[in-house]
C-alpha cells in the first residue's frame, strides 16, 4: 500500500544525509578559516563570507528540510492509513527542492545575496521555495483530510504547525522589490526590517529546527522502544506552548537596539515562558525513551535519542537565558551565541537525525543494521566533538564579551579588537577540532548505512534489532 511513500521517503532521507555531510564540511571549512584565515587562499569563492551562508543554507534547507518534509509525509500517510494525496506532486516536490537548493547555493557562491540571516537567497529562489512549500502543505493537509482514522496523531500537529508558521513567516520576511534577475531589495527598512528578519530568523530555529523534530520524535521514539508516548497531555502543552510563545521570542536578539523597548520586553517575557513547553517536551520524550530499560541498556540508537533530548533541554535553557538583559549584554554578539546555536544544531538536531537514520533506514530497506559496534564508535566521536565545540565557544564567548566591555579608569577600552582576536585563537582551534570529530562520526554513519543497504535481503521484524 505504501510503496510510493517508502520510495519517496528513501529519496528524502538520502538527500538529507548528503546535504548534511556537504553542509557540515562547509562549516568545518569556515571554522578552520577562523583559526587560520590563510586557508581561504585569497579566493573569493571559498572565503568565510561565502562559505558561512553556504553552510547554514545547506544545513537548514538541505539536511533539515529534506528530513522534515520526507518524514512528515511518511508519518501522515502511515498514521492516516492512506496513501499521499498525489504521487506526481510528491516527486515534483522532491526534485524541485533539490534543484532549487543547488541553484540557490550557486547563486550565493556567485555573490547574489539578500544579506539576511538564514534568508540569503534572492527573490527568484524565494518564489520557488514558497511554491514548493505550498506544494508540501497541499500534499500534507490533503492526505490528512482523507484519513481513515478519526484521531490526528500528535506528530501531525507539529508538522502542520511547522508548515503554516514557516510558510507565513518566510513569505513575509522575503517580500522584496525585484531590480533585476537575482537582485531585489526588501520592502522593509530600518528597525522594521530587523523585527521582521528576527521574527523569521528565530522561528526558523523554533519551528524547522525544534517543532519539526519534536514531532518526528513522537513517532520514532515510541517505535524504537516499543512503548507508548509517556504523556499525550504533555505533548499538547508542548505544541500549544511553542505556538503561543515561540513566535514572539525573536526580539531577544534585538535588545539594546533602536527597536522600541516594549517590543524588546515582549521578546524577553515570551523567551522566559518558553522554558515551560520546551522542558515539558523534553521531559515527555525522556520518559518515553527510558521506559524500556532493556533497550536503554543495550541499544546505542536509544542513546543518541537520549542525548538529543538532553541537548534540547540544554539549548532551550540557553535561549531564554540570553533574553535576560544582563546576560545578553555580555554574551550576545560573541561566540557564546554560536556555541548555543550548535548545542541545538549538533546536539539536538544532529543527534535526532542520526538516531532516526540508524533506526529508520534499516526498516525502509528491510535490512538489519550492519554494525552496532560502529554506532557506538559514532556515539563517542559525536559527543566528544559536540563538547569540544560548544565548551570552547562558551568559555571563549564569555571571555570575549567581558573583555569587550572592560574599560580603563579613563573610560577607554582595556582591550583592542586585536587583543580579543588573540584571546579567541585557542577556542577557535577547539571549535574546529570539535567540528572535525563530529564530521568523522557522520562518515562512520554513512559507511555503516551503506553497508546496511548493500546487505543481502533480510526482512526485519518491527521492534527487532
From TrEMBL:
It holds the Pfam family COX1. InterPro entries: Cyt_c_oxase-like_su1_dom, Cyt_c_oxase-like_su1_sf, Cyt_C_Oxase_1, Cyt_c_Oxase_su1_BS. GO terms for cellular component: membrane. It is found in: Membrane. It is a multi-pass membrane protein. GO terms for molecular function: cytochrome-c oxidase activity; heme binding. Residues 1-465 form the Cytochrome oxidase subunit I profile domain. Keywords: Electron transport, Heme, Iron, Membrane, Metal-binding, Respiratory chain, Transmembrane, Transmembrane helix, Transport. The chain crosses the membrane at residues 12-36, 56-77, 89-111, 123-145, 157-180, 200-220, 232-250, 262-286, 298-317, 337-361, 373-395, 428-450. One of its GO terms (biological process) is oxidative phosphorylation. Belongs to the heme-copper respiratory oxidase family. This is Cytochrome oxidase. It comes from Moritella marina ATCC 15381.
Amino acid at each position: 500500500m505504501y510503496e510510493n511513500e517508502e520510495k519517496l521517503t528513501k529519496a528524502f532521507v538520502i538527500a538529507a544525509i548528503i546535504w548534511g555531510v556537504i553542509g557540515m564540511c562547509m562549516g568545518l571549512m569556515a571554522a578552520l578559516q577562523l583559526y587560520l584565515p590563510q586557508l581561504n587562499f585569497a579566493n573569493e569563492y571559498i572565503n568565510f563570507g561565502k562559505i558561512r551562508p553556504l553552510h547554514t543554507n545547506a544545513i537548514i534547507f538541505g539536511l533539515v528540510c529534506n528530513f522534515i518534509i520526507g518524514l512528515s509525509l511518511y508519518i501522515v500517510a502511515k498514521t492516516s492509513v492512506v496513501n499521499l494525496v498525489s504521487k506526481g506532486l510528491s516527486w515534483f516536490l522532491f526534485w524541485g527542492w533539490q534543484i532549487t537548493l543547488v541553484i540557490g547555493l550557486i547563486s550565493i557562491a556567485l555573490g547574489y545575496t539578500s544579506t539576511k540571516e538564514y534568508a540569503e537567497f534572492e527573490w527568484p529562489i524565494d518564489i520557488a521555495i514558497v511554491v514548493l512549500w505550498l506544494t508540501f502543505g497541499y500534499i500534507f493537509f490533503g492526505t490528512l483530510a482523507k484519513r481513515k482514522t478519526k484521531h490526528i496523531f500528535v506528530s501531525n500537529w507539529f508538522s502542520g504547525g511547522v508548515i503554516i508558521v514557516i510558510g507565513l513567516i518566510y513569505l513575509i520576511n522575503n517580500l522584496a522589490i525585484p531590480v533585476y534577475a537575482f537582485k531585489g531589495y526588501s520592502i522593509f527598512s530600518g528597525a522594521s526590517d530587523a523585527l521582521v528578519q528576527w521574527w523569521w530568523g528565530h522561528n526558523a530555529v523554533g519551528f524547522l529546527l525544534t517543532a519539526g523534530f519534536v514531532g518526528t520524535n513522537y513517532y520514532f521514539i515510541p517505535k524504537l522502544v516499543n512503548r507508548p508516548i509517556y504523556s499525550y497531555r504533555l505533548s499538547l502543552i508542548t505544541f500549544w506552548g511553542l505556538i503561543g510563545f515561540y513566535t514572539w521570542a525573536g526580539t531577544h536578539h534585538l535588545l539594546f537596539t533602536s527597536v522600541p523597548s516594549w517590543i524588546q520586553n515582549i521578546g524577553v517575557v515570551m523567551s522566559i515562558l518558553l522554558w515551560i513547553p520546551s522542558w515539558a517536551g523534553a521531559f515527555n520524550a525522556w520518559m518515553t525513551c527510558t521506559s524500556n530499560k532493556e533497550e536503554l541498556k543495550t541499544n546505542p540508537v536509544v542513546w543518541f535519542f537520549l542525548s538529543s533530548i538532553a541537548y534540547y533541554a540544554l539549548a532551550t535553557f540557553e535561549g531564554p537565558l540570553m533574553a535576560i538583559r544582563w546576560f545578553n549584554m555580555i554574551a550576545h554578539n560573541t561566540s557564546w551565541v554560536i556555541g548555543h546555536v550548535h548545542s541545538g544544531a549538533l546536539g539536538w538536531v544532529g543527534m535526532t537525525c542520526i538516531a532516526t537514520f540508524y533506526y529508520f533506514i534499516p526498516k525502509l530497506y528491510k535490512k538489519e543494521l550492519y554494525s552496532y559496534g560502529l554506532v557506538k564508535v559514532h556515539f563517542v566521536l559525536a559527543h566528544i566533538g559536540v563538547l569540544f565545540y560548544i565548551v570552547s565557544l562558551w568559555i571563549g564567548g564569555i571571555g570575549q564579551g567581558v573583555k569587550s566591555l572592560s574599560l580603563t579608569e579613563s573610560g577607554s577600552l582595556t582591550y583592542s579588537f586585536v587583543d580579543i582576536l588573540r584571546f579567541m585563537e585557542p577556542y577557535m582551534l577547539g571549535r574546529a577540532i570539535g567540528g572535525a570529530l563530529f564530521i568523522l562520526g557522520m562518515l562512520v554513519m554513512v559507511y555503516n548505512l551503506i553497508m546496511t543497504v548493500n546487505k543481502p535481503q533480510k526482512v526485519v521484524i518491527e521492534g527487532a534489532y
